[in-house]
Amino acid sequence: MLPDPAPIEVFYDGNFADYAISYNSGASRFTITDMNATDGDEGTDTITGAESFVFNGTAYSAADLQTEAARQANTAPGSPAIASGGAVDETAAAGTLVATLAATDADGDTLSYQITDAAGTPVSDPDFQISGNEIRLRPGAEIDFETAQTQTLYVTAADAFTTSAPQQITLTINDVAEDIVLADTGVSFADTGVTENFIQGGQVTITSRGPTTPTISIAAAATISSTLAPGMTRSFQALEMIRSMLAMVMTTLSSMAERISSMPAPATIILTSAMATQRLMRAMART
């Protein structure tokens, strides 16, 4: 019986990185081309059956060369983009899906996505994280429409061998009516988005929940400044306004008392009460 043949080992003088390598899996054939002619051009070799390759004294297995051939043949994935979504409410809970990502890959490889800085270095964003191809709200995130209506991330797509250039992704923060509590004195509040449903600032509370008319509760000593139109501001003392309102109510009630005896039906009372309310509202509008 003849002994088993010794494993075939192929030697090259140049460094491993100096060679272009391709692999035909059907024929189990390597094609190796020297790309650095300055240290001695070794040309192109077609090799089958070799189990080991030595480049400038360093040994590589056939599996190593197959991996290198796949890397060299690989096409880098395209830049990622938002496939769906892209907006999130400012009050959303941790883990909320914000957007899904997609990128093209000519080789059909499975892609992974990562948040980076503008140079492509991976970073941890305080508000958002990526799971698979999904951007989700991170636990402890502090997104606020009044602070920033959009946020920008840089994201890369990667296959097994290469990574795309970082792509800028813009996410929109949706405004949501919130309960807002201001400091007791010297407060200033500007609402740039949707109308809030509850605002409290020390001696003033404004509540508007549900379909009912907003309720305004004002402490007697509170001073309120309200902007009615661009460049037009009215200031008034809450105490004086309340006194004026009470005086008008007393006058209206006195007038109603004089007429009650002559009113023939409840409908007349209701009508007069409505007229008194309208008169009260007009008087308030003039203050």
From TrEMBL:
Pfam families: Cadherin. It is found in: Membrane. It comes from Yoonia rhodophyticola. Its main location: membrane. InterPro entries: Cadherin-domain_protein, Cadherin-like_dom, Cadherin-like_sf. Residues 88-189 form the Cadherin domain. CDD domains: Cadherin_repeat (cd11304). One of its GO terms (biological process) is homophilic cell adhesion via plasma membrane adhesion molecules. Coiled coil: none annotated. Keywords: Calcium, Cell adhesion, Membrane, Repeat, Transmembrane, Transmembrane helix. It comes from the Bacteria. Signal peptide: none annotated. This is Cadherin repeat domain-containing protein. GO terms for cellular component: cell-cell junction; membrane.
